[in-house]
Write a structure and sequence with these properties.
By secondary structure, the protein is of the alpha+beta class. About 15% of the residues lie in helices and about 35% in strands. It contains four helices and 16 strands. The strands form four sheets. Strands 5, 11, 12, 13, 14, 15 and 16 form a seven-stranded antiparallel β-sheet that branches. The protein is elongated, with a radius of gyration of 39 Å.
Length: about 230
């Protein structure tokens, strides 16, 4: 019958002679509705009912974003001492004292008496004495003609970030040599931890461009993907 066809049943029955193997029973109101199939158990009867193949549920595994590319330009910090003798009472450099504990050499003028130093080096001590950035700058200016400074060369890294991965990184709005990192949170926090970037490290170039703090800040706000060159201090 049509009902047997709709049910898609394939049966091979070997019932006892004279026994009814299958009954079609009406369901619902009499004369209406559909029919149900009742299979009587008979000795020696074999019933084959095709099984529908189960649907495979594909689990979507989220694709983990690749970590930002980090390149070490100078892998370690190191310190050294250098002696200098003032020329006409001058040292011949400009010093950034924006951050209290970071006395940074901002500019080396022609005729600077400091030897073996570079822009972005950090002055740690003057004549063996530590102090805040303003105190160290003052001590250097007021020292005798010959003096000695202890200098830290920063570690330099390049890190490639887009707007999403650098979300949570804040930089100082003040004029300085480079952009001082003043806050680390959100998505940038784990990246900074892996790359060993810390508070008060400085962004000194973007996409290889060494610029003023204002220009660097503008590039950072406008470009989606950027390569940051960062000086990191111990």
């Amino acid at each position: 019958s049509a009902h047997l066809t709709d049910a898609m049943l394939c049966m091979c029955c070997v019932p006892e002679p004279g026994a009814d193997a299958i009954e079609i029973l009406p369901t619902g109101d009499e004369g209406q509705g559909t029919s149900a199939m009742k299979i009587k158990e008979q000795p020696g009867m074999v019933v084959e009912i095709p099984m529908k193949e189960p649907e495979l549920i594909k689990e979507e595994i989220p694709v983990k974003a690749a970590p930002p590319e980090v390149k070490e330009l100078e892998a370690v910090w190191y310190e050294f001492n250098t002696k200098a003798t003032k020329k006409d009472g001058k040292v011949g450099c400009k010093i950034d004292t924006l951050t209290r504990d970071y006395c940074i050499l901002r500019q080396l003028e022609p005729g600077c008496v400091l030897r073996d130093v570079e822009v972005m080096d950090r002055v740690l001590r003057v004549n063996g004495v530590k102090g805040t950035a303003p105190a160290l700058a003052r001590r250097m200016a007021e020292s005798a003609e010959t003096f000695e400074i202890s200098v830290q060369r920063p570690k330099k890294i390049e890190i490639t970030l887009d707007k999403k991965t650098r979300d949570g990184m804040k930089v100082s709005e003040q004029d300085s040599c480079g952009l001082v990192i003043t806050d680390i949170r959100g998505p940038f926090e784990s990246i900074a931890r892996d790359a060993k970037v810390k508070l008060f490290d400085r962004i000194v170039a973007i996409d290889g461009s060494l610029s003023t703090a204002d220009e660097l800040r503008l590039l950072l706000s406008k470009r989606d993907k950027v390569i940051l060159t960062i000086c990191s201090y111990n």
